[in-house]
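As agreed, record passed on underneath.
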Amino acid sequence: MKKNYASLTLLCALICFGELQAQPTKDGYFSMGADAGNIFMTNTTHTSRQFFSYKPSIGAQGYLQYHFNDFFSLKGVAFGAFSNGAETPNFNYEGFYGSGDIRISLNLMHLIKKDMTKYRLEAELGGGGMVFTSYLMQRTGNPEPIVNRRVPQNRGSVAFASTYSLALRYQQEVYDGIYFNVGFQYTGTSSPWLDATVGEGNNGFFLPFIGASFSLKRMPKANEINVDRRTYNRLSQDVDRLEQEKNQFDQKIEMTKDESRAVIASLQQELKDAMLERDSAKALADKYKTEGGARDTDASAELWRVVVGSFPNKGLTDRFMARTRLDKSEMEVVYNETLKTYRVIYKSSASLEEARKFRDAARQEVSDAWIIRF
């Protein structure tokens, strides 16, 4: 039994150590609670589970528990009980017990589903000490029974024993931070005198119980609020998501600023180019006015002419002349009265072959240049 108890303790310690490494202790908090139930003493020669109705066997315990995280916690327990029983009409016992122990508590529900705060299934293992007094009484014809044996026998006030406890507890939250508890507990001791009789298997008792507990993490300090782990994780994820969206939005703003600067610079450059074209067109128009427009209207000789532009008004014609990169040394403008258009002549030639060469050269800049004879 001692070897199994030590192995179980070591296993629990290893599990707890692993969970403590995996889970930070920043969310630690206290809880407190109380339980009560009937005591079931293991059978001996003079005891059984038959109880006097006017003296029910009852046990109660209170505890303070510190939760390192959702899985692992330590619990300090104070326990008190009264037990009595009888197997024959001649003998019965009465016992008074008080103990204290420290327990390791593991929330098994955490292994099933993490962050489940409304439901807990705790397995408890611990050890401590007990003080007790027990009486074995023999019933006779007298109204009061005769004390046959008292423990401790040296007339001391109480006897002492070491204890170990095993418990399984189910908890369900019924209100904000308040839990309903139900469970089963076995407490074993090093003394065989719990019922004032030495016998096989009479050094422990069972306690099925119900109770309630209160989570002290629901009591925030000034200027603080408490949230459960699931809500905290959800809020943390929301904060991270909003932070990422903010960074992306900031990047888009910077990109928009850069694009706006580029667009403004491009528009400024286009404005400068337009102003330059306007000035060039004006200078070219002044030139035509100075030369009297002789070349604009001269169509006396029939030649093969390479046309690189045809426009409905003089302004568009001047703008094309200012912007084109073609050789302007022989370029001229001819107004067609019939079509009411201004034709820009790149070059003219009496030879069709030479005119075709001029056209091909012009198509490097104006893809739809064509040849006409007039």
Confidence is low (pLDDT under 50) at residues 1-7, 16-25, 45-53, 287-300. The first helix runs from residue 2 to 22. The CA atoms of residues 133 and 157 lie 7 Å apart. The chain has three domains: 2-226, 239-290, 293-373.
